[in-house]
Design brief:
Layout lengths: L1 H36 L1 H6 L19 H32 L15 H6 L3 H17 L3 H11 L11 H17 L5 H6 L11 H27 L13 E9 L12 E4 L2 E4 H4 E6 L4 E8 L1 H16 L3 E6 L16 H10 L9 H9 L3 H13 L5
Antiparallel strand pairs: 1-5, 1-6, 2-3, 4-5
C-alpha cells in the first residue's frame, strides 16, 4: 500500500537526518578538542580555538544539542506512525467501500452541495476526509478502537504491544506539550520516579525497530483483509441485461464514455459509471466495454450509442455472450418491460435476416427470449 511505502521512506529519511546530524556533532567536538591540543596546526587549517557561543562542548554525557536531536527525531517518529495509521484508511477506501458502510453514520449535504458535485468522487472525498479528520484528533486509543471495529484488526495484539505503544505516544505528548515534565498519571502508570523524561540513543533505536515491525505486520494484515473484501456474506444481484461492445472512435471525443456522463433510462437518472463493468483499451481510438444493469438502462444507453453511430462519430460492434465467457447471456422470463424494449427495437418490415439476434445482442438477452417476444407481438396483433 502507498501509505506503508511512504511511512518506510519517512522513517529512513529521519534516520539519515539523525545519523548525519549526530555525526556532525561528534566531528565538531573532535575538532574543538584538537584545537585545544594542537592550536598551531589547527589554526593553519582555519579552525578557531574558541567554539561559538551557541555550541556547548560535550561533557561526560551527551550534549544539549544531542539530547534535543534525539527528542526531535523521536517526536517525528511518532507523528509519522500516526499519519501512516490514518492514511491507511485512504488506501483501503480506494480498494473497497465495505468497511465504511455504516447505517449510524449520516453525512450531511445541502441540496446545493449535492447538485454542485461533478461526480460521486466528490461525495467519497468528503466522507473519507471526515473519517480521517476525526481519527487524527482522537489519539492512539481511538485509532485502536477504529481498526478493531471497522477492519477487525486488533492493533493491541501487534508487537510491541499496546502498553509500549501507548508509552511512546504518552512520552511524545509530554515532550511536545510539557517539555518532558512528567505528571502523576504518567509516573504511576509507567513506574517512573523522575520528574522529567527525555530520549537517549538506545531508546530511539528501539522505537525505530518497533515502529518498523509494527507497520510491516499491520500492512500484511490489511492485505489479507482486502483479499476477502471485508465481507464474508456479500450477495451478488444479477443484472437484468448485459452487453459486450467494441467501440471505435471515428471523430471527436464523445462524452458518452465519461464516467460521469448522465442519461435517462425511463424516469431514472443514470450515470455511465453505474453500468460500466470493465473497459479494455485496444488502442487510442478503439476499446471494449462491458456494461450491465437494468434492461431499461442498457436499452437507453444502446439508443445513445446508435445516435452517435448515425452521426458518424463512432463505430460499434456488439459481441454475443458466446464469444466472451465474462459476459454470459442472462436467462430471464418474459415481462412487460422486456416486451416494450424489444418492440421499440424492431424496425419497419421487411426485417433483415437475423433481426432477433441483433436485438438480442443489443439488449444482452438470449435469442430465444427475443424470438418468443416477436412471436408474442405478432400473435397479439401488436405488429404486422
Amino acid at each position: 500500500m502507498s501509505s506503508y511505502l511512504q511511512f518506510n521512506r519517512e522513517l529512513h529519511v529521519l534516520v539519515r537526518f539523525y545519523k548525519a546530524t549526530l555525526y556532525s556533532y561528534e566531528q565538531t567536538d573532535y575538532l574543538l578538542f584538537k584545537c585545544r591540543k594542537e592550536k598551531e596546526s589547527m589554526a593553519e587549517l582555519g579552525f578557531t580555538e574558541k567554539p561559538p557561543s551557541y555550541y556547548k562542548i560535550k561533557g561526560p554525557g551527551i550534549s544539549e544539542n544531542q539530547k534535543n536531536l534525539f527528542e526531535i527525531t523521536f517526536v517525528r517518529f511518532v507523528s509519522a506512525l500516526e499519519v501512516y495509521l490514518v492514511d491507511q484508511l485512504r488506501d483501503v477506501f480506494i480498494q473497497t467501500k465495505e468497511p465504511f458502510k455504516r447505517q449510524n453514520s449520516k453525512p450531511e449535504f445541502s441540496q446545493a452541495e449535492l447538485l454542485s458535485m461533478k461526480s460521486p468522487a466528490d461525495i467519497f472525498d468528503k466522507i473519507i476526509n471526515k473519517e480521517t479528520r476525526k481519527l487524527s484528533s482522537g489519539g492512539f486509543n481511538e485509532i485502536i478502537k477504529y481498526y478493531k471495529e471497522h477492519f477487525q484488526i486488533n492493533l493491541a495484539d501487534i508487537s510491541p504491544g499496546k502498553k509500549k505503544m501507548e508509552e511512546y505516544h504518552q512520552r511524545r505528548h509530554l515532550l511536545v506539550h510539557r517539555l518532558g515534565k512528567t505528571d502523576q498519571q504518567y509516573r504511576d502508570k509507567y513506574n517512573c520516579g523522575s520528574s522529567r523524561i527525555s530520549v537517549d540513543e538506545s531508546y530511539l533505536a528501539n522505537c525505530f525497530e518497533d515502529f518498523k515491525n509494527f507497520a510491516e505486520i499491520l500492512n500484511d494484515k490489511l492485505k489479507k483483509r482486502l483479499q476477502v473484501n471485508f465481507s464474508t456474506s456479500k450477495t451478488k444481484i444479477k443484472p437484468e441485461a448485459k452487453s459486450l461492445i467494441i467501440v471505435e472512435i471515428i471523430k471527436g471525443q464523445p462524452n458518452i464514455f465519461d464516467s460521469n456522463y448522465e442519461f435517462w433510462a425511463g424516469d431514472q437518472l443514470c450515470m455511465f459509471t453505474n453500468i460500466l463493468d470493465n473497459r479494455i483499451n485496444e488502442s487510442d481510438k478503439k476499446f471494449k466495454i462491458a456494461i450491465s444493469g437494468s434492461a431499461a438502462q442498457i436499452s437507453s444507453y444502446g439508443t445513445i450509442l446508435k445516435k452517435e453511430v448515425d452521426r458518424g462519430k463512432i463505430r460499434v460492434e456488439y459481441l454475443s455472450a458466446k464469444e466472451n465467457s465474462v459476459i454470459p447471456t442472462p436467462k430471464k422470463r418474459l415481462d412487460y418491460k422486456t416486451i416494450l424494449l424489444i418492440k421499440e427495437r424492431l424496425p419497419e418490415q421487411p426485417w433483415q435476416t437475423g433481426i432477433h439476434k441483433i436485438i438480442a445482442e443489443e439488449l444482452g438477452l438470449s435469442n430465444k427470449i427475443v424470438t418468443n417476444t416477436i412471436n408474442y407481438l405478432i400473435k397479439n396483433g401488436q405488429i404486422d
